[in-house]
Specification:
Helix content is 39%, strand content 18%. It has 4 helices and 3 strands, in the order αβαβαβα. A 3-stranded parallel β-sheet has the order 1-2-3, sandwiched between helices.
Length: 97
């Protein structure tokens, strides 16, 4: 599933009958940024895994702080390779909370 911005991502997730195991989201997006998207998704999907993306390095520190119980989340700095993204996805999905 894909979405152009955070508002559309919420609509896609809410309209999905399938579980959403992971969201890969940019932190800076129109209408609704990645932090707020993740917070809103966690209300209905508290088990969700989040990978935040950003080209701004100052977000790498805060992306790993203050996560709700049960969340597995991580950060990957842009630009990145598809191999690096694949490794990050594996890391998040296999980590324990």
């Amino acid at each position: 599933m894909e979405a152009r911005d955070g508002v559309e991502a919420l609509a896609v997730a809410d309209g999905s009958e399938k579980p959403v195991h992971m969201v890969v989201t940019d932190l800076i997006m129109p209408k609704l940024g990645g932090w707020n998207l993740a917070e809103r998704l966690a209300v209905t999907r508290p088990e969700i895994n989040i990978i935040y993306l950003s080209g701004y390095s100052e977000y790498s520190v805060t992306a790993s702080a203050d996560k709700p119980d049960g969340w597995r989340q991580s950060f990957i700095q842009k630009p990145f390779t598809m191999n690096a993204l694949g490794e990050k996805i594996k890391e998040v999905l296999t980590s324990t909370v």
